[in-house]
Amino acid sequence: LVSTVLAWRLSRDGRLPSRHRAVWQMLAAGLLLTAIGDLLSIGLASSRGRDLTVTAADAPYLLGYLVLIIATLCLVDGRPPRRELVTLSLDASMVAVGGGLVIWHSIIVPASRAVPADAASRLVSLAYPVGDLLLLTGLAVMLLRCRNDARCRVPLILAGSLGAMLLGNLL
Fold it and tell me: pLDDT of 90-121, one tens digit each?
């Protein structure tokens, strides 16, 4: 919740361009949705025990993923020059493929073996690793576009925070 409040406060800073304030509002919304999912998950786990069925916590979690992915990609300023676009595309693709292999091996294959046969549970259990992979790719694009200047501090902190979230999902 602290990161949600900080992102919201940053979105209210009049010194930022309106486009950046909107991105920080999206980040705050995504983080808030994740916190709501956490609270629902904790409440449901204490009342129902730990099971792999679809719960009310899945909706804010998955919507939070979508909002965070969009906000991360919107944080990138402008379109790179053509030569840089090719390099950026190759680098981001390598991160996506490498991350995809790790996520496939450590999450998707075990989840596909453990999930009940109903389609909703299978779809939800596979949506989380896909969200992780898309968020990882968005973070890679954001960081690869970052130059070595003062404007990189915030994306680096954001990447550290979201990276810790992704690492927690893998464990």
Answer: 888 888 888 888 888 887 787 777 756 677 77
Gyration radius (Cα) of the chain, Å: 17
Window from 24-33, 54-63, 140-149 with minimum mean pLDDT: 140-149
Nearest to 159 by CA among 93, 88, 36, 73: 73
Q: Locate tokens 């998707």: which residue?
A: 108
Percent of the chain with pLDDT over 90: 8
Report the amino acid identity of residue 167.
L
If you average pLDDT over residues 23-31, what whole number do you get?
90
